[in-house]
Amino acid sequence: MNECTPILDTGLRGASVASTRISDVNGKLGKLIYRGYLVADLAQKSSYEEIIFLLLRERLPQKDELAELRAELNEKRKLPREIFAAMEALPRDTPPMDVLQAMVPLLAHGDAHIKERELESSMKSAVNIIAGLCSITTAWERIRNGKDPVMPRDDLGHAGNFLYMLKGRDPLPEMVNFFDTALILHAEHSFNASTFTARQVASTRAHIYAAISAAIGSLSGELHGGANVRVMEMLKEIGSSDMIDEYIEKRLESGGLIMGLGHAVYQVDDPRALILAPMSERVGKITGDTKWYELSSEVEKRAKQAFKARKKMDIFVNVDFYSASLFYAMGIPMDLFSPVFAVSRVCGWAAHVIEEQFALAAPKPALYRPGASYIGEYCGPDECVFVPFDER
Amino acid sequence: MNECTPILDTGLRGASVASTRISDVNGKLGKLIYRGYLVADLAQKSSYEEIIFLLLRERLPQKDELAELRAELNEKRKLPREIFAAMEALPRDTPPMDVLQAMVPLLAHGDAHIKERELESSMKSAVNIIAGLCSITTAWERIRNGKDPVMPRDDLGHAGNFLYMLKGRDPLPEMVNFFDTALILHAEHSFNASTFTARQVASTRAHIYAAISAAIGSLSGELHGGANVRVMEMLKEIGSSDMIDEYIEKRLESGGLIMGLGHAVYQVDDPRALILAPMSERVGKITGDTKWYELSSEVEKRAKQAFKARKKMDIFVNVDFYSASLFYAMGIPMDLFSPVFAVSRVCGWAAHVIEEQFALAAPKPALYRPGASYIGEYCGPDECVFVPFDER
Predict the structure, then answer these.
(1) A81, B64, B193, B332: which sits with the fewest CB atoms below 10 Å from its CB?
(2) pLDDT surpassing 80 at residue B44
(3) A369 touches chain B (CB under 8 A)
């Protein structure tokens, strides 16, 4: 992480490009920290609303502050009419991530604060977008299935509203708690492709909606947000525990990875996976279908053994490994896994956008404008000679 | 531009992050090169359609190839019905850049090639998006003014169709030529905030529509695409040539910049500005209103003198300086200046996305995932202790 890390054609891996006060990842010890607090602690003891406050404002909320934030979220979960109308216009098989990326810039229209460039205005915009993304995602699930969107309820929190608006029925309190924890665990993870995209767009002084829409685009890539979908596809491909060894063998022989194992940063089990695994088991028990949790657990065990035996190396589960079976058991359609990720991570993105907008961790605002090395044509010592069209 | 350029909190200025074969900027000599050719040459001798081919395919088209590309553009300029329907749903004062960013991901739905991950499929998607952005921009201008969108015409090229679909009447051939040249001049400029955003989103394997929508978000920032709008605002503020000196004086004293003067890369006049200036003059003469060109020209002259005299430094015009009065004279509404920039630059973005997708200039595909330096709280040698909500 020093200034001489090679950066040409490396995707900036390992190069520290910006200071941040938002989160830290200790890959060696398996610690993920939001604003100084261990995420393992936060997952047990706080709510997603508290995390919104913590990530945006760098401290935990007082009681009245949290009440105020909840009220603001309740209000902002009601989408402007044009967002519903625009979604109604779309073919029902439009992929949800495309819909999310498209709808977020349109949320800007209803935001009176957007031109103020004041910290408190940006905080309000952030809450608007966090609330709005929950409603857009659930509304699209309803609309594409030919159902009316479900209006949010003020007596439910963010996690509860998501499940209620998705399904149109009262969610079990235990499910709400698990979903709330999942939202906390996915809310922030320092720099990564989508967060970097959000900061970069914000650095041109584009508004927060433009920045977060761009981040959604980045998350939609299969190397980023799509990983837990691929874990679920793997579990379905394996199908039953007697097929695990054969699957692992095949993957190891072809030099392929096993989805959900290994991470760019963690050298131990991902602290989030350790919390998601028992949740996945518990939700399986509630719904009466523990198959996918059990299969996951067995794949983890045997893959770890196989890597040890054949490659003499340890391999670790990442966040996507158990979120797959957890979300699946909760009845969330697989193509909403990435949107759910976005519904949670939007909070971290917003914190990063604000940090960038107001240079809260850097000496001054930076417009990201890297250079490139031209290795293309020159046709000799000078430029190529243009041959007119008629002579070609 | 070596590997040890400091990159922490510098917005990656001057740090070369990727190899590219697409374009090169020689800031010292004022040369801009697309795929080996001087842009000054291309602006005089080629058409925007040739530039699309050149930027995407690294060589100039043969006659049949250009005819094929023109036919493909003609076909793709016809937008899917849902795009019109979604735009119709929006409040008429929705800012055009938000509309563009929102509509581009929705173009993906009609693209059958999107999942193929083949070079030729990506080329087709690129042409679809280049054609589509022209139609979206002009359709939104019509819709927001309560008019029906104008359907594209196969006997017009890209520049001609843009002007025709914008105004609903036959454009003057000379205007078409000038607009075509403006499209060529804005088509590509190596790495910059929006191009870097597009490449970065593409690096997660998100589709090209997601990447280009994100780039539009980046371009919407006033530090990036908004610059020629601010030049025009400046010209209007100055109002007449007898107010120029006072304005320049005031700006120099307050340490402010003069919009359209100075550039991160060029140390001489921007080669694009040298071509745009006479075009701006000529269009003014055609429309009978040379005021804005003349004012620009006078501001350039006096600002250069003032910088020389007071700051002992040379200052140079950049691309935005004369594109402002040019687009204004062409009757393009000021809040469409950035969309017009996007309608042109989309071609460069697409070339960069494809270069990234297929690692055409790098040893292997890179997922941009930089690191960050945590400088936030730790509350002591270990993590902060979480105080439960009830005890706060």
Answers:
(1) B64
(2) yes
(3) yes
Whole-complex ipTM: 0.96
Chain-wide mean pLDDT for chain A? 95
Q: Are B22 and B55 in contact (CB under 8 A)?
A: yes
Instruction: Give the H/E segment covering residue A24.
Output: strand A23-26
- CA–centroid distance for B257 within its chain: 21
Instruction: Judge contact between A73 and A47, C-beta under 8 A.
Output: no
Closest alpha carbon to B137 in B104, B186, B182: B104
Classify A23-225+333-358 by CATH class: mainly alpha
Q: Do B213 and A217 touch (CB under 8 A)?
A: yes
Give the single-character DSSP code of B172: P
Q: Please give, rounded to a whole number of angstroms, the shortest distance from the CA of B362 to a CA of chain A.
A: 6
Contact of B185 with B272, CB cutoff 8 Å: yes
> Three-class SS of residue A23?
strand
How confident is the model over A188-233, as pLDDT tens digits? Answer: 999 999 999 999 999 999 999 999 999 999 999 988 888 899 999 9
At the fourth CATH level, the homologous superfamily of domain A227-329 is Cytochrome P450-Terp, domain 2 (1.10.230.10)
Cα angle B321, B236, B160 (rounded to 5 degrees) comes to 55
Place of tokens 């503020």: B237
Distances in Å between the alpha carbon of A159 and those of A35, A199, B346?
A: 22, 26, 39
Distance CA A261, CA A256 (A): 11
DSSP 8-state symbol, B378: -
Which residues on chain A are in Cβ contact (under 8 Å) with B89? 82, 85-86, 88-89
In DSSP terms, A374 is beta-bridged to B20
Q: In which residue ranges of chain A is pLDDT below 70? A: 1-4
Helix or strand or coil: residue B315? coil
Strand (E) or helix (H) holding B353: helix B337-357
A358 touches chain B (CB under 8 A): no
For residue B60, count other CB atoms closer than 10 A to its CB: 21
Where do the structural domains in chain A lie, given as residue ranges? 23-225+333-358, 227-329
β pairing state of B16-20 and B37-38: unpaired
| Model pLDDT for residues A242-291, shown as the tens digit of each residue | 999 999 999 999 987 899 998 878 999 999 999 999 999 999 999 999 99
Tally the residues of chain B.
392
Buried b (16+ CB within 10 A) or exposed e, B130-151: bbbbbbbbbbbbbbbeeeebbe
